[in-house]
Amino acid sequence: ELGIATFGDLLLHVPFRYVDRSRFHTVREASPDLPNVQLRGVLGDLRTVGEKRGRRLVARLTDDTGSIELVWFKGIRWLQGSLKPGQEYIAFGKVNEFRGKLSLPHPELELAATYQAGLDAALQPVYSTTEKATAKGLHSRGIAKLTRTLLT
Questions:
Q1: Apex CA 27: angle with CA 22 and CA 31, to 5°?
Q2: Share of the chain above pLDDT 90, in %
């Protein structure tokens, strides 16, 4: 689907843009006007809200300036087993405003303890992919990881 059959194909599948993740924002600075935010804070308790199609997982990420709601609509079971409330996380995504409250839907999360600063973390490539490839783990971050592994 992506035309990637060999290592050479993978290397020729170039990113269509880069995202600058060198800056951390505070929760107070988080705004829907920003293209993306990267926050560092402690993950609160996970809870499931709603039923059937409206079911979602929510948690709060808190730093010294406030807290913001993190929301997931998919992968709820997996997230419940993977996320560790009370731990410090790095959250990255687009801030949304819903009913006057700010939230971060489907943020990328990484434990702060495993976060690696530096150029690799600062400029992240964004690759085109498909829904089918994403379902098999070949999302943009997966392609970036494979490419980085191939080149090292």
A1: 85
A2: 59
Structural fold of domain 23-115: OB fold (Dihydrolipoamide Acetyltransferase, E2P) (2.40.50)
Contacts with 63 (C-beta within 8 Å, 6 or more apart), sequence order: 26, 27, 39, 40, 41, 42
Banded pLDDT at 25 (limits 50, 70, 90): very high
Helix or strand holding residue 47 (H, E) = strand 47-49
Give the pLDDT of residue 132. 87
Q: Would you kindly state where each structural domain of the chain is located, as residue ranges?
A: 1-22+118-152, 23-115
User: Can you tell me the distance from the alpha carbon of 34 to that of 37, in angstroms, rounded to the nearest whole number?
Assistant: 7
Query: Which strand (E) or helix (H) includes residue 10?
Result: helix 7-12
The answer to whether the predicted template modeling score (pTM) of the entire model surpasses 0.70 is: yes
